[in-house]
Amino acid sequence: QAHGMLHQWRFLTAGLPQLKRVWKAYHIGVQILSGEIDHTPALFVISPQGNLEKLYVTQMSYASVPQLGQLVAQNVAGLLPGHPQMPAKLSYAQAPSIGPTAPVSLPRAGGGTVRLGRGEGPRLQMFFATWDSQVLPLRTQLEALNQYQSASASAHLPPVVAVDEGSVEPSPAALTGFLAGLSRPLSYPVGIDASGRVADGYQVQDQPWFVLTSRTGRIIWYYDVATQGSLTAPALRAAVRAALRAPPKVSLPATGEVPSSLAGSPPPLAALHLQAGRLLGSEAALAARLRGLRGYPVVINAWASWCAPCRTEFPLFASAAARYGRRVAFLGVDTNDSSGDAASFLTHHAISYPSYQSAMWQLSPVAPVADLPTTIFLNAAGKTVNVHTGEYAAQGTLDQDIAKYAG
User: Fold this and answer.
1) Exposure winner among 274, 321, 360, 384, fewest CB in 10 A?
2) Is the pTM of this model over 0.85?
């Protein structure tokens, strides 16, 4: 709008070999899984002479979309002839997010309000925007939620609330028009998150995105429809039940000890358990280890001692490895870290498997790693079948991915 460029975007695509050459030239990390492409969210500003003037690598934040647009407009204006002045109307002060532990009332589509946050029991939320329907079967997913909602009470499952991300809708009327075009009305409420602060607080990273929260407001499961596919009503019910089922209590080992739950593991996996909490060799040693683990699915968690989200999710991997480690190989990869800091970290974080040391770029033969933490799933043939970028915030989601990709 500021530069008169509405409807002047050009969207380019090509065959996979040509795309790969472009990604490599621009140093873009890419994941291609189940026919879906996910990549580094980079915005390059290139001068008429072909020089890179600005590079923006955006973070997922629904509340800051307008501020990011203002920032880009101001910076680009400085590169244009005459350097036109761009007024800065928006503050760059941090917009505090609203997480599931905080009660909040959102405007409800059709009138009234919708209440989110901690309550009398677990809650299931699905975040979406109407433009999702351009690339995904959004209507099918919303209809599946109708079926889920009708059976939720009798099945003793939490009710569902849909949340429209008004902060990224093309207009305030987009939701009204979309709902009016559905073949049947929705049997559950749709709240409107006009500021984006709720999506940020619920750690929404894509759309549509499910979040299951406990009575106290803890996130216990989430699901990315865009990369993992739509959920039928029976599949959604099964996933929610599994997430609500508390994982069995497992006593985590001290460094170098093997938990009793892993006794009797096959020799290749038992060898991992005997190296619990140890920091081993480099990328070459990791590659050799992976060859020796052929025949078993492998879960690789890339972490670093300086990475706060890595520290947060570490207990989830410790619990999962102690429960699934008799049939799944777990490995850590300490990435872009010093051996001293990594060893100290492992001393205070008990796990039942070893870690190797590597740089991010050295993991590219297994999968592209652009950020930490990243979790890589390999099947029994050693083929990468899924890459999860970012923190696992819930044991239920990690367990579900292990069952799906390393089952």
Assistant:
1) 274
2) no
